[in-house]
């Protein structure tokens, strides 16, 4: 809770020391605290009762703080926790929303590469879904829906429309990208997720089923506190952020909901023109707004800090010491719209109908969410929530000009027009952070977003479309599925170019690839060859154009996976040519061969000289780092792992590692798994990565690690008669 509070407020350096001052400056620049203060201080709130509950919750937390018995982490850090208030809770909720935004990295990187790579079509690196031959969208591509084909199109002219930058300008922009990349945050940004709904007609129990597994950075303590709350007139079984009294994801005997990220583009960067405390907007010089928020350091001193704000948002380059280029501001929908997130969480718990759930969720402005719903009446429904900005000149994938007003946000799609599905005829609704729709929305020619790769959606759609009815056990197994949906296509393209091998290790590697079943279990031999080859082809393909540092940043955004699919299908792309050999033009086939040699060499050195020991589990691990990891040596004591586990990048069990860093330890994955069945509620199951307790001395510390790694679900027990160890707290009136 203490770390969550400090992330939201930008006060980490007061706890961990000066090495996190830059992180605090960035967090303060996001205006999380400012927006939380504005929300808290509103004269009227939608649900006053929600705030009463929050105050009561915080009073209890503060009473515990006053008792003075703290976890050992505070002793190690030489500090004590302070009281918690409303702003602390709301600021962290807003942080969780921003941490899904990829635009701040992708827009700046696109702008840099567009100017640097004169002989390349940079849109090939940032294709979103433009290279796909078939739409893979939530609305149009559910199992049983007719396939919606469309022509792949990347227009180089659009890519080259930006005016050229000087080398110094480009270096300055890279300083911005790298500063964001190098931030040290004890709570890492969030990743993709899976969710699917099964109608009563498609379930073996005859009831609606919801399956959901949000993917978040792995950590110890875990992201969620799992709890069952029950008092007269109210019941919920949910997954809580420890600083907030309402679950973000929950169910009861009547309804259930789950979340994945919508990934719509609600973040933009703008070049600003600033002189003498004023900025240029549509031909007028306007005074910068100033938000003062000084940084308290661990040694007790204070470092002055203030945020300059334009009509678009805060200036994000001000905090970067080495940056001397044009100021860049950050537009984020949360800065410009009411976003009553606490009221929404309360209303979701109280809602008693599909309409009430729709009404409550539609109040969210940011982040964009895919909201999945099932109830005891047999309804299944999907809502995209969060606002879609409408830009005057469309939504290019680069830093925009801020002084003219030609690229400003001029409005938002009305929430009522957001894409939705309710009780579709096919009886299945899947979301996996893929593109929401190909249809136009009012005011938008196309819906833009930082769509995650379609691999997980395609796998789920394929499997769920195979049989008529599903059980909880089968769906729980599907959440642990490790089949790579792109691997068959990938190998069909690459294997013909690798047939003529003479070296025994290469022959062995080729045989493992050929016989591989495309799954990522710890004992899989084909998986380790495939994934290392996958990386080496990508490195040979792009690092000559991007350079080592930009290659690392590029690997932090979803676009690299979408682009890779396109490159594999396009042997004529200029990117296959190695810029390091100007007297020769390499072909795709030659790059494949070189990457295969790199792969075998890596496996020999890093895994084993014997191919019989080349297994996924010997290379690929899972680890749950602790916030104290920012403290050298000590942080390792509180870390759980690394250890082998089934899973991989962009499979359903999406345990994702930092590929471009050649780090084979999963950094993110399913933060919980659950399957709720309204035909037989007692059969519902769940999983947590490590367990509820973050107390090193607790018998429940890390007690669920083995089950999570092995995909073993446990029953959700709503009925008191099935509880084995029960303690009750009863509140009695005073005499």
Automatic annotation (TrEMBL):
Pfam families: Penicil_amidase (PF01804). SUPFAM superfamilies: N-terminal nucleophile aminohydrolases (Ntn hydrolases). One of its GO terms (biological process) is antibiotic biosynthetic process. It comes from the Bacteria. The keyword Calcium applies. InterPro entries: Ntn_hydrolases_N, Pen/GL7ACA/AHL_acylase, Penicillin_amidase_A-knob, Penicillin_amidase_dom1, Penicillin_amidase_N_B-knob, S45. GO terms for molecular function: hydrolase activity, acting on carbon-nitrogen (but not peptide) bonds, in linear amides; metal ion binding. Ca(2+) binds at residues 265, 267. Transmembrane segments: none annotated. Binds 1 Ca(2+) ion per dimer. The keyword Hydrolase applies. The active site is at 193 (nucleophile). Belongs to the peptidase S45 family. This is Penicillin amidase or penicillin acylase.
């Amino acid at each position: 809770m203490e770390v969550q509070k400090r992330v939201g407020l930008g006060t980490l350096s007061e706890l961990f020391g000066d090495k996190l001052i830059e992180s605090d400056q960035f967090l303060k620049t996001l205006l999380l605290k400012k927006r939380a203060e504005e929300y808290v201080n509103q004269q009227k709130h939608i649900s006053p009762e929600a705030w009463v509950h929050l105050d009561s919750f915080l009073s209890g937390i503060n009473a515990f703080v006053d008792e003075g018995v703290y976890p050992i982490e505070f002793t190690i850090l030489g500090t004590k926790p302070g009281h918690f208030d409303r702003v602390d809770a709301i600021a962290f909720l807003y942080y969780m929303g921003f941490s899904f935004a990829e635009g701040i990295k992708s827009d700046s990187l696109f702008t840099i590469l567009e100017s640097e790579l004169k002989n390349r079509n940079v849109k090939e690196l940032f294709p979103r879904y433009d290279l796909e031959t078939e739409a893979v969208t939530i609305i149009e591509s559910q199992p049983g829906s007719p396939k919606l084909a469309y022509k792949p199109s990347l227009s180089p002219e659009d890519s080259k429309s930006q005016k050229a930058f000087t080398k110094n300008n480009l270096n300055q922009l890279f300083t911005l990208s790298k500063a964001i990349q190098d931030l040290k945050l004890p709570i890492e940004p969030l990743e993709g997720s899976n969710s699917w709904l099964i109608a009563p007609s498609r379930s073996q129990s005859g009831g609606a089923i919801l399956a959901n597994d949000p993917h978040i950075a792995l950590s110890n303590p875990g992201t969620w506190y799992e709890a069952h709350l029950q008092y007269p007139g109210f019941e919920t079984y949910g997954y809580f952020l420890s600083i907030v009294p309402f679950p973000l994801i929950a169910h009861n005997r009547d309804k259930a909901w789950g979340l994945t990220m919508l990934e719509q583009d609600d973040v933009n960067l703008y070049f600003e023109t600033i002189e003498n405390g004023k900025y240029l907007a549509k031909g007028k010089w306007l005074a910068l707004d100033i938000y003062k928020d000084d940084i308290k350091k661990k040694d007790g001193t204070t470092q002055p800090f203030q945020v300059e704000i334009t009509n678009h948002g805060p200036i994000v380059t001000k905090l970067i010491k080495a940056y001397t280029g044009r100021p860049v501001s950050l537009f984020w929908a949360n800065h410009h719209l009411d976003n009553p997130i606490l009221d929404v969480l309360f209303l979701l718990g109280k809602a008693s109908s599909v309409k009430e759930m729709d009404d409550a969720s539609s109040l969210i402005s940011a982040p964009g969410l895919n909201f999945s719903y099932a109830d005891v009446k047999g309804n299944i429904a999907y809502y995209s929530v969060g606002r879609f900005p409408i830009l005057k000149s469309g939504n290019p994938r680069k830093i925009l000009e801020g002084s003219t007003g030609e690229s400003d946000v001029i409005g938002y799609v009305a929430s009522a027009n957001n894409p939705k599905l309710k009780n579709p005829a096919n009886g299945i609704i899947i979301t996996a952070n893929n593109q929401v729709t190909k249809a136009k929305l009012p005011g938008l020619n196309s819906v833009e977003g930082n769509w995650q790769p379609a691999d997980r959606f395609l796998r789920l759609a394929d499997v769920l479309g195979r049989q008529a009815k599903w059980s909880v056990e089968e769906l729980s197994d599907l959440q642990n599925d490790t089949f790579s949906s792109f691997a068959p296509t990938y190998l069909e393209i690459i294997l013909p170019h690798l047939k003529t091998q003479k070296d025994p290790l290469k022959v062995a590697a080729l045989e493992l690839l050929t016989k591989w079943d495309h799954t990522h279990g710890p004992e899989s031999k084909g998986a380790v060859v495939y994934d290392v080859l996958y990386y080496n082809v990508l490195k040979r393909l792009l690092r000559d154009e991007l350079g080592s540092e930009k290659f690392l940043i590029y690997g932090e955004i979803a676009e690299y996976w979408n682009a890779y699919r396109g490159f594999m299908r396009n042997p004529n792309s200029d990117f296959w040519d190695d810029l390091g050999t100007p007297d020769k033009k390499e072909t795709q086939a030659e790059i494949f061969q070189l990457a295969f040699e790199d792969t075998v060499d890596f496996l020999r050195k890093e895994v084993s000289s014997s191919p019989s020991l080349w297994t996924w589990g010997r290379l690929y691990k899972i680890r749950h780092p602790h916030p104290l990891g920012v403290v050298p040596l000590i942080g390792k004591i509180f870390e759980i792992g690394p250890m082998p586990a089934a899973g991989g990048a962009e499979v359903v069990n999406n345990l994702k590692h930092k590929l471009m860093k050649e780090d084979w330890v999963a950094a993110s994955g399913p933060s919980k798994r659950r399957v709720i069945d309204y035909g037989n509620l007692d059969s519902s199951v769940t999983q947590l990565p490590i367990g509820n307790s973050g107390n090193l001395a607790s018998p429940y510390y890390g007690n669920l690690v083995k089950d999570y790694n092995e995909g073993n679900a446990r029953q959700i027990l709503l009925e008191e008669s099935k509880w084995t160890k029960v303690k009750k707290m009863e509140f009695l009136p005073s005499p």
